[in-house]
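Apologies for my clumsy wording, but could you write out the amino acids of a protein and the tokens describing how it folds?
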Amino acid sequence: MGKRDLRIYALLDTLKESPVLSIKELADRFQVSEMTIRRDIDYLKENRLFYENQASEPAARDHDEYLYSSEQIRNYDKKDRIARFAAGMIEEGDILILDSGTTTGVLSKYIPEHMQLTVLCYNYHILSQLQGNEKLSLIFAGGYFHRNDLMFESVEGIGLIRRTRASKMFVSASGVHEKLGMTCAHNYEVVTKKAALESSLQKILVADSSKFGQVRPGYFAELEEIDEIVTDDGLSREWQELIAEKDITLHLV
């Protein structure tokens, strides 16, 4: 990721936290010219990541609406560290399921190109990242395309997942709660996620620490169904102890 991309991601976080900062204050903070800041803000507006009158929220029509584009850049540095570590867990000959999500989306660009692997996915962004890797055997579970999170979903796709067996699944979750389990942003994701979990030998949750303690509408699994968790070192001590009590292997990166 280039210096400009990192600055833009940091700028978006800053605008959401401190929407009243002036162009000059932003330029001073990022040590660039005011013209550069204006161009960066124009880029965010053009890509629907920021609205001038709604600076405290991601660019979405509704407060609870999930947009892959805005979710992808939230906590990007943490997701990138998680993805790099998770990629190191992949072994020659693995059959992988990459769940639909932004952290798994980052992981898809780190899938080793020197290994013979089979990967099943059902997310457009992940598919586009993997299609150029000629060593991969790529399986795509298609169907109805949900534009907000780039996921495909159908009865036929779920059937394909159920007929497939994977050595590892990298699981995405929008919420992880001690009592209410793992949840996702949309109920239409639930059956696909359940089928993928049932078809996988080793289940690895990849989620940044902001997801822990959160609850979203679609329940798909208990935390105890997970074998390993890869998250960032911002995870609270309470959550670390809870995960240890559940005998789940925890990797902090």
Remarks:
- The longest strand covers residues 200-206.
